Amino acid sequence: MLDLLDWRYNFIFTLPLIAIFGWVAIKNAIKNKPERHRFQLAEYLAIVVSLVALTLAVNQLEAGLGDPLVSGGLLLFLAALVAFVVLTRRAGGHHLLNLRILTNHAFTYSLLIYVFLQLVQINLTFVIPNLAQLTFNQSALVADFLLLAGSLLSSFLGPVMERLLDDRGPRFPLIAGSLCIMASLILFTVFIAHLTILTIIAFHVLYMLGFSMMYNNTMTLGLQQLNGPRLTTATPCLTCFNNTPVQSAPPPWP
What we know:
Blueprint: H1 9-12, H2 14-28, H3 41-59, H4 68-88, H5 105-134, H6 140-145, H7 148-168, H8 171-190, H9 197-223
């Protein structure tokens, strides 16, 4: 589509699929009895203002920190973020986010790893196609195919690595996955001036191997550290094929 049509068609052709999958999801969703809470408009506005201000400031960073939009946007972002945190820490009531779960260190470690893995993943999926097109003068089709092998590998290995977490615990997949990811990023850095199509594919496959070991497993392990009202014992274990309950005694953080 990117080679033959305008880039907007990438989204136009996706919309019907989203509508179909959304209809299937709604039709097959478990119909739980909803809990009604008062919508926290102040918290919602605080987080919206903070994200909009940060986006505007980052988009204008090339003008320097002295630019009013950059400095003002960053100050407004921090002020709105502080206001959001203060509002969500009020006692009683229902909040948009329960920030108190961040006091659970194991969950917080899992969340940080999960977020940074996603940041690296987004950057690679942006940098690699641009590198192929701008440096190697490849078409958009070839540039996207550079990501295909690693993406397919991650798709097929996802369930396998989740089963590995169930069978062997968290230490092996998380340590092995982090080693694969670090090795991949080091190789990209060392060979940055000598990259070829084949080395890019190989390094990306190595990264996606580590990614598939860590991404879902990290958040599953983090969720298993929560209990009581934060996570009911009836919640299915995200790593199990047979939907067994979350373990009452969560595995130790590696």
